[in-house]
Amino acid sequence: MSVYVDDVRHPYGRMVMCHMWADTDDELHAMAAAIGIRRRWFQEPPKASWKHYDIALAKKADAIRRGAILTDRYGPVEHTARLALASGDPDKVARARQKLDQIATIRARQPDKLL
């Protein structure tokens, strides 16, 4: 089981944010607490497309020091696709496979852009 952060950079006021998510809710909340992120910043469906925190770059660096895995910008899409695969729903599985194939194609075209 793991916690992940991506390499996106979204402006939010005077801060720059990225995403943090995990294989399990317990891991995600434990990391958030460890790096000083309040639970109220947790985002989940239906208000968000997946369970995650938006975190500032300083918190990202702290999460990485504590073992979080850095991913590229496609990490969240890959994560949600893998959840859909595990759902067993044939329609979700088919869409998830398409997404994973698209990500693999994009990454193959841009190997130097990875992490």
What does this 3D model show about the protein?
- This protein is an alpha+beta fold.
- It folds into 2 domains: about 5-70, no CATH class; about 75-115.
- The chain is built from 4 helices and 6 strands; from the N terminus they run βββαββαβαα.
- Strands 1, 2, 3, 4, 5 and 6 form a 6-stranded mixed β-sheet that branches.
- A hairpin with an 8-residue loop joins β4 (about 40-45) and β5 (about 50-55).
- α3 (about 75-85) runs antiparallel to α4 (about 90-110).
- It starts with a strand and ends in a 6-residue tail after the last helix.
Strand fraction band? 15-25%
Weakly predicted, low-confidence segments = none
Number of helices: 4
- Largest sheet composition: 6 strands, mixed
Q: Could you estimate the helical fraction of the residues in percent?
A: 40-55%
How many domains would you count in the coordinates? 2
Key attributes of the depicted protein:
6 strands; 2 domains; six-stranded mixed sheet; alpha+beta; 115 residues
Task: Describe this structure in a few short sentences.
With 115 residues, the chain is α+β, with helices and mostly antiparallel strands. It has helices at 25-34, 57-65, 75-87, 90-109; strands at 3-6, 10-12, 15-22, 42-43, 52-56, 69-71. The radius of gyration is 15 Å and the shape is globular.
Topology (elements, then pairings):
Layout: E1 3-6, E2 10-12, E3 15-22, H1 25-34, E4 42-43, E5 52-56, H2 57-65, E6 69-71, H3 75-87, H4 90-109
Helix pairs in contact: 3-4
